[in-house]
Amino acid sequence: MAPIEVVFGIILFVFALIGMGRGFMRELGVTTVVVLLLFFLSRFDPYLDRGMLKGIALVDATATMAEARQVQCWVLMFVIVGVTFLSYHGETLAFAGHLAPGAQAAFLGLMIGAVNGYLVAGSIWYYMDRFGYPLRWLGFDPGQFSSTARAIIGYLPLTFLGEPIVLGESLLLFLSLFLVLVRVVR
Which of 26, 65, 75, 130 is the most core-located residue (most Cβ within 10 A)? Predict the structure, then answer.
């Protein structure tokens, strides 16, 4: 399998192309949903962690911590991919307004699509890193990461945007509020 930073870059590129095709107004709707999801996941992380561990213990009392971490990683990745799929599927939360003409619209769609790719792929990578890469059979072994991959880990969405900045709140809260307000106030 390709290095993890290459897979990350390919996912960003694919999301950028999708964004260019859909237009930036529709892509901003997806950005809003994904940022709200990431805020929810970062805010309620301790509760989700304890709840999932209790649920795993109820289902399989003999599960080891490594098995439980793998299940947690899969569940969180499924939630991120599922919410992203639903936000792209069908009638979406599109922002009101007119598309910019020609190349400007394509460029804005490309950029917002790349941001969505960063949020989705980066969040999945964050959880893989957090749970010790329990999916090593995919070929992602942290012992073999390049210096580029190690550097990117510090800039993954939940690491970078989840840091408290003002009044102990993360940038995810402020981004969520901003995107919702922009969507509501036309």
Answer: 26
Q: Does the structure show a pLDDT above 70 at 96?
A: no
Please check whether residue 129 is in contact with residue 156, taking contact to mean a CB–CB distance below 8 angstroms.
Answer: yes
Tokens of 136: 């090593």
pLDDT of the residue at 26: 84
Q: Six-digit token pair at 16?
A: 């950028």
Residue with tokens 């969507």: 183
Query: Taking the model in full, what pTM does it have?
Result: 0.86
Question: pLDDT (tens digit, 9 = 90+) per residue, 160-179?
Answer: 777 766 666 777 777 777 77
d(CA 143, CA 164): 30
Which amino acid would we find at residue 12? L
C-alpha span between 68 and 74 (Å, rounded): 10
Q: What is the DSSP letter of 132?
A: T
User: Residue 83: CB partners within 8 Å, gap ≥ 6?
Assistant: 33, 34, 37
